[in-house]
Batch of 2 targets.
Target 1
Amino acid sequence: MAIDSALPSPLGTPVCEKDAKALRFIEEMTRNADSVQERVLAEILSRNGETEYLRRFNLDGATDSDTFKSKVPVVTYEDLQPEIQRIANGDRSAILSSHPVSEFLTSSGTSAGERKLMPTIHEELDRRQLLFSLLMPVMNLYVPGLDKGKGLYFLFVKAETKTASGLLARPVLTSYYKSEKFKTRPYDPFNVYTSPDEAILCVDSFQSMYIQMLCGLIMREGVLRVGAVFASGLLRAIRFLQLNWKQLADDISAGTLNPNVTDPSIRKCMENILKPNPELAEFITKECSGEKWDGIITRIWPNTKYLDVIVTGAMAQYIPTLDHYSGGLPLACTMYASSECFFGLNMKPMCKPSEVSYTIMPNMGYFEFLPHDPNYPPLSPESPPRLLVVTTYAGLNRYRIGDILLVTGYYNSAPQFRFVKRKNVLLSIDSDKTDEAELQKGIDNASLLLKEFNASVIEYTSYADTTTIPGHYVIFWELLVKDAANSPSDEVLNQCCLVVEESLNSVYRQGRVADNSIGPLEIRVVKNGTFEELMDYAISRGASINQYKAPRCVSFTPILELLNGRVVSKHFSPAAPHWVPERRR
Ligand code: AMP
């Protein structure tokens, strides 16, 4: 249907007036990126210039970017921790923001083992919602007919806690899904989910996933897109289906709900959705009982046009598995966001994952792209890696996010960039981010168990094994056992796995305990001399013998093959590590 009032946008022809408005907004913001950025900074500084933090830098009322950049330093979370702690403890004065801090968003990035706490203010919810509202208008330019069916999205809320002064602390999407903005959103034919809000909002991950999968199966023919926030989440849903299809089929056949689903609001809403359907149950049994799971997504949801999951950054490791289960459906990475700020969107969401560039939306905050490390030569002269630095309405000033980006070009005058990686992350399976120091601490602690056997770890490296679902950390280590008659037992080595896990940050442990998004950590003991072979291999490929250090994480197939070929024993964590929603400090 032609929309009279909708002018074709330079991006394409919008399918409805609402989309036309959104596309016009994108055009307006990106065409005037520089002036929008100056305006955003001026707005932020006019309202936050008198905060305790900014007063330290004597801006004297200046709101321009030159003065701002020359007087206010780039900071990290650790620099702001005293201020953040005071806010968490109940100091309501204007420390970072002139507007009251409404809650803390808990980042998956950690500091001293705990999630970072990002202050936010009420109106930021509007900004986040605004960015969300731009995604479908762009997608509709590339995939027609998305209003003719539904999206099967696996969306979850996570545990929330309160700070000493009673401010809520929870992940940004939990905050969004629990907001009235989400719960009372108006009907939008392009944004209809199969999952009832009651299921999305259920904090018990089993019940939530069970119902979301059940509804996805019941409405299978209407499903036009399948998604989760990150690729790892969608694969977890597929694994859930592998483990639970029998019970799901029984429920569908009889029209009765699994008694393990106890949430009363879910049970009530399922009364209208779940009706006996033996034919569908038979179909599910036929598809799921076989050995062949390749292409399962397209067999169960035959009208799926694309998978909506982030597969950039660390999530790229899941692309082959997603392709396996979906028979190569397009993978759409639609946006780039964080607890600190939502940054931008992908203007070509159906492009290949390797070509994804996100376009900054200049109205979201004030952005700077600083050279990653001035002492390092750029990867290429035209496009040196950049660190993203943001200034937000909520009171972060020149805050370094920790993401490394490559600027790839511009959409109108808004910068576009490729997500390269998160700085210092060695291992990641889901939203966990483990750095070298954390892994080293884990190895040191586990090594203590080897002492009584007069054994020690000579060398180690690690690997994120995503061939299992959920994926898990693997540590290859070479031991020096001085007394073969008294070498550490299987049990002790299993225990070493658990000690490493206990030493890792709370996001890792939450993934293991509450989200089931990470499997038990594995130690593979390799035979003596393996790391010397690894060095020989690296030197044969040009590494300098003087500077050689064993890599602390590996992913290159020939190296993995070498290591796996030398494994003498494998050990797994025998229990889940300790985790409670409350922070340790
Ligand atoms: P959090 O700190 O838990 O709010 O997570 C935000 C972080 O997730 C970002 O700083 C990125 O490192 C990562 N992230 C978010 N969106 C994307 C994306 N589209 N591609 C790659 N990584 C992303």
Target 2
Amino acid sequence: MNPSRKPLIAGNWKMHRTVSESVALARAVADTSRIGPRTEVVVAPVFTALQAVAQALVGTRVTVAGQNVYFEEQGAFTGEISAPMLKDVGCAWSLVGHSERRQLFGETDASVQKKLFALRKHGLAPIACLGETLAEREGGVTYDVLRRQLDAMTASLDAQEATALLTGLVLAYEPVWAIGTGRTAKSSDAQSAHAFLRDRIRDRYGEVADTVRILYGGSVKPDNAAELLAQPDVDGVLVGGASLDAAGFARIIQAAG
Ligand code: PGA
């Protein structure tokens, strides 16, 4: 972590928990976590539980994210949810481009960019995920993939527009081979990927790079969080499985200071 950026700990609950279970988990997170004065904590429940969780967390330091969003505001888009709708139920954030969305539901670099624009337009903060698959890592193209995914977020924007989009943006580097597998990236590999992303932003757009927070995700657990968070370019973590256990998630939050 770098003291110029606030640590961010995010829990992605994926397709787990009913409404009442989600509210209970959210309350447990808010009640048991000792959240450092500068740390931000976000949880991303299933869509059906967003409103109830957001209400349960009013007055706490835990905020709420959607796990996905559609880029249109309304219309004939069966099964989709828009940014104003997320805002309406109390979300401050949304994930975009999670590898499960990219791999299982056809999310593309281009749709990720449209979703970023939609979230920003409606005052929601994106957590934009990117990362290489195992085949890409073994094929030696990790950094090509990261560059492509990152550059696509600012594709066709002029420098001023790109800088506006990147200011305060949260990225989540999630190597796909580390998600849900128990196989965490070595903290040095995470640091290298994060530094690569930040350097790429700095090379293209200058010092806005220092305002971008880059989370690491992929089998983050209470016992590996501190080492990951100790890396200078790791500004937080995006936690899947381990965020479903309030006590464990509280330990990860504490690792951020
Ligand atoms: P995991 O998931 O912590 O269960 O590996 C991380 C994620 O998909 O965001």
